[in-house]
Write a structure and sequence with these properties.
This protein has twelve helices and ten strands. The chain is α+β, with helices and mostly antiparallel strands. Among the domains are: about 90 residues, Ubiquitin-like (UB roll) (Roll); about 130 residues, Fumarate Reductase Iron-sulfur Protein, Chain B, domain 2 (Orthogonal Bundle), CATH 1.10.1060. The strands form three sheets. It has a five-stranded mixed beta sheet, sandwiched between helices. Strands 6-7-10 form a three-stranded antiparallel beta sheet. A hairpin with a 2-residue loop joins strand 1 and strand 2. The structure holds iron/sulfur cluster (3 copies) and FE2/S2 (inorganic) cluster (FES). The site of FE2/S2 (inorganic) cluster has 12 residues, from loops.
Amino acid sequence: MQFTINNTPVEVLDGETILEAAQRMGCEIPSLCYAKGAKHKSSCMVCAVKNEVNGQIIPSCTTRPEEGMKITTDSEEVLLARTLSLELLLSDHRADCEAPCSMVCPAGLDVERMIGYYDAGQYAQARALVVGAFSLPVVACDTCKAPCEKACRRGMVDKAVSIRAIIKEVAAMSGLPAPDQEVRQSERGKKLFQSQLGRLTEKERKRLQETVISASRCLHCACAGRVDCKLRLYATDASIKRPRYSASSALPAMCKVHATGRLWFEQAKCIRCGLCVYNSENGFTFKDRGFGMQVVLPEENRSHVCEELAALCPTGALYLVYS
Ligand code: SF4
Ligand code: SF4
Ligand code: SF4
Ligand code: FES
């Protein structure tokens, strides 16, 4: 049996889907709810292709090739269908890819990471970042108008983090041991798609105020899964600057839930692809139906999930935290 992909005849292998056949011939099709070798069901439509024979746009990750099919993977129409799917997913997505404070620092300091070290008592690492960004660290921010503090998300909750004071305090520290590893500013991904947290609800503000009580009060806004987030990667490829639809999700923003071991879960970044549900027996599960459907991890199911699920998740909703 033969069919074509972009006018090239393709021999069908047993059990293969259109997406897998395309990959075999070197044609990359994006996918979010599909992961090689994992149980999945199509839901995201990011892998859309067109069957020119009947004019249908179909999910390539679950559709098996049929004799005579003529599949197009790269037409304007197909790319538009994928972009619309991405925009719909992003309309439900309330999170910051990068920390706003780090994005706006004119000196390029990775503010959020520096504060992360500060909160963890890793002052040598924090100071290494400060020293790497400023030639005169102790007076570095004295003349700066502090766009970091204006952009600070904590300002939505109560009062912005005193970033300049922390930088000054860290810069003035002396007698610290050398950092145990090389500390460099992170690649902040300014050219990549930036998901941005919208307004916080009263309930969210209250929760964050009551639960984030570290020395700095920093919310650590940067997404822990941003380096390998496929949603962000595809949004960048599709030149999406910001979601077309305003955030409609009722999921709690910045709610970090410990799952097991080093595994953490953030519901507001979940696109409900189901990979963690289908690949954890009695672990993650769907709650409710339709537009309000959520992925949840009931307390009694925690012992059924494992850290490997982080690698399956196409977004930063499931991630590992290394101390
Ligand atoms: S809460 Fe922390 S990470 Fe977020 S913007 Fe403020 S200083 Fe940066
Ligand atoms: S899950 Fe992806 S798109 Fe969402 S905030 Fe994280 S990096 Fe950005
Ligand atoms: S947590 Fe990740 S893997 Fe699970 S449904 Fe959400 S996006 Fe998919
Ligand atoms: S990857 Fe095919 S529908 Fe999501």
